C-alpha cells in the first residue's frame, strides 16, 4: 500500500450522502473507513456494492461499528484509523421527526460533532486531520429579512433555526468554527441546501413523492398524502454535493461554504414534475388542508389512470409545529473558490429518481407474484 494514499473516515456512511461520498473517494484512490451503527438487521444496501471481504488483498473500504453518542468509541476509531480527512455526515436528519426526539437529535447532531472535534484534539491530530462538518440550510429558518441583497441565503446570512434539528445543527456549526479558531484546526462547515437522489430515505418528501408516483402509476398505491404543498426548497443532486464536500477539504485555508443550486421550487411543483415523468398531468384544486390533485391527462399507455382520480391529498399531521416556508441558497462562493459546477438540474434529478422507483416497484411486484416477497411497502 502506497504511503501517499489518503485515508478518509466517514460517519453516516450508510446514508445517501455517505454512499456517494465513499464512491467518489474510492475513485480518487482513498482508503475509506466508514462508521456504521450496530443494528439487528442489515442497513447497508446503499454501500453493499462497495464491500470488500477482509480476506482479500488491498482492502480500501472498511466499516467500523460506532455511534456519535459514544465518546470513547469515537476516540478509539479515530485513533485506529488515523484519518487525513473526516467527513461528519452522521445525523438524525429528519426535520419533522426531530420535534418528536429533540433530546436525541441534540445528542447526535450537536454534541456528536463536539465529540469528533475533541477526539481529534485529544489524540493530537490537529495538524494532520481535516474535518468536514455537514451543516444545513435549516439554520436560516426561512426568514425573508435574513436573505442577502440578491434574495438568497449566503455565508453571511443570520441564522434562525425553526426545529430541534436546526438548533442542534447550529451548535455543530459554531463548535466547528470555534475549534478552528481556538486550536487552529482545519475544520469546515458545508451549509447544504436540500439534495436528493434515488438513495434518499423513503420518508423524506422528495423520495416519498417519487415512490408514490411509481406506485400509483403501477396500481400499487391509491393516493399520496403530503403536508405543506406551499413550502419552497432549493433542490440539487447528492452526487454534486458530495463532490463539493471533497473540494472544501482540498483548499489551502479552512472556510465555510454554502452549497446550493440557487433555484427554489414549490413542493406542489415537485409533485407535478414527478407525475409528468410517467406521462400523468395533474390539476390542483382547493387550498391548505383541503387541497387535492386530480389526474387531468394520462399520456402514457403503460399507466392508465382514470381522469379525475384524486392522487394527492393534504394531511395536516405532516405539518411541522414551526414551518420553514422558503429556502434558496447563493452558491457564488462555492462556484468561484471551489470551482464547483453541479452536473444535474432539477428536471434531471426528478427523472432519475422516478425511473429508479418505477424499477423498484416493478421488481417488488414480480417478487411478490413469484412468492419470494410476502408483503412490501406498497401494500
TrEMBL record:
UniProt-listed CDD domains: GDP_MD_SDR_e
InterPro entries, sorted: GDP_Man_deHydtase (IPR006368), NAD(P)-bd_dom (IPR016040), NAD(P)-bd_dom_sf (IPR036291)
Keywords: Lyase, NADP
Keyword Lyase appears in the UniProt entry: yes
Gene3D superfamilies with a match to the protein in the record: NAD(P)-binding Rossmann-like Domain, UDP-galactose 4-epimerase, domain 1
Protein name: GDP-mannose 4,6-dehydratase
Entry EC number(s): 4.2.1.47
UniProt similarity note: Belongs to the NAD(P)-dependent epimerase/dehydratase family. GDP-mannose 4,6-dehydratase subfamily.
Domain NAD(P)-binding: 9-353
The protein's enzyme class: lyase
Cofactor(s) of this protein: NADP(+)
Gene Ontology annotations of biological process type: 'de novo' GDP-L-fucose biosynthetic process
Record's keyword annotation contains Lyase: yes
Functional summary from the UniProt entry: Catalyzes the conversion of GDP-D-mannose to GDP-4-dehydro-6-deoxy-D-mannose.
Gene field: gmd
Catalytic activity: GDP-alpha-D-mannose = GDP-4-dehydro-alpha-D-rhamnose + H2O
GO molecular function terms noted in the UniProt entry: GDP-mannose 4,6-dehydratase activity; NADP+ binding
Amino acid at each position: 500500500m502506497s504511503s501517499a494514499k489518503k485515508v478518509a473516515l466517514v460517519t453516516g456512511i450508510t446514508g445517501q450522502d455517505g454512499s456517494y461520498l465513499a464512491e467518489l473517494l474510492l475513485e480518487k484512490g482513498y482508503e475509506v473507513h466508514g462508521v456504521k451503527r450496530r443494528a439487528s438487521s442489515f442497513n447497508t444496501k446503499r454501500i453493499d456494492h462497495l464491500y470488500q471481504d477482509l480476506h482479500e488483498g488491498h482492502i480500501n473500504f472498511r466499516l467500523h461499528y460506532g455511534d456519535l453518542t459514544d465518546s470513547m468509541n469515537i476516540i478509539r476509531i479515530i485513533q485506529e484509523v488515523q484519518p487525513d480527512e473526516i467527513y461528519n455526515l452522521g445525523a438524525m436528519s429528519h426535520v419533522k421527526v426531530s420535534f418528536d426526539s429533540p433530546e436525541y437529535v441534540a445528542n447526535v447532531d450537536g454534541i456528536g460533532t463536539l465529540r469528533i472535534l475533541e477526539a481529534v484534539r485529544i489524540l493530537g491530530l490537529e495538524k494532520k486531520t481535516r474535518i468536514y462538518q455537514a451543516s444545513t440550510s435549516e439554520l436560516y429558518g426561512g426568514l425573508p429579512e435574513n436573505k442577502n441583497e440578491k434574495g438568497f441565503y449566503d455565508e453571511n446570512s443570520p441564522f434562525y433555526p425553526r426545529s430541534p434539528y436546526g438548533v442542534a445543527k447550529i451548535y455543530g456549526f459554531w463548535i466547528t468554527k470555534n475549534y478552528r479558531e481556538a486550536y487552529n484546526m482545519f475544520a469546515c462547515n458545508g451549509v447544504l441546501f436540500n439534495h436528493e437522489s434515488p438513495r434518499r430515505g423513503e420518508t423524506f418528501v422528495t423520495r416519498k413523492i417519487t415512490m408514490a408516483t411509481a406506485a400509483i402509476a403501477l396500481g400499487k398505491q391509491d393516493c399520496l398524502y403530503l403536508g405543506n404543498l406551499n413550502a419552497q426548497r432549493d433542490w440539487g443532486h447528492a452526487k454534486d454535493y458530495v463532490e463539493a464536500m471533497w473540494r472544501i477539504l482540498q483548499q489551502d485555508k479552512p472556510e465555510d461554504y454554502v452549497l446550493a443550486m440557487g433555484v427554489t421550487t414549490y413542493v406542489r411543483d415537485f409533485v407535478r414534475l414527478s407525475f409528468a415523468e410517467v406521462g400523468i398531468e395533474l390539476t390542483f384544486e382547493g387550498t391548505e388542508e383541503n387541497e387535492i390533485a386530480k389526474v387531468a391527462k394520462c399520456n402514457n399507455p403503460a399507466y392508465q389512470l382514470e381522469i379525475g382520480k384524486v392522487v394527492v391529498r393534504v394531511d395536516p399531521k405532516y405539518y411541522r409545529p414551526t414551518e420553514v416556508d422558503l429556502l434558496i441558497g447563493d452558491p457564488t462562493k462555492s462556484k468561484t473558490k471551489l470551482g464547483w459546477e453541479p452536473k444535474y438540474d432539477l428536471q434531471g434529478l426528478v427523472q432519475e429518481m422516478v425511473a429508479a422507483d418505477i424499477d423498484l416497484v416493478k421488481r417488488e411486484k414480480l417478487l411478490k407474484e413469484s412468492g419470494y416477497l410476502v408483503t412490501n411497502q406498497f401494500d
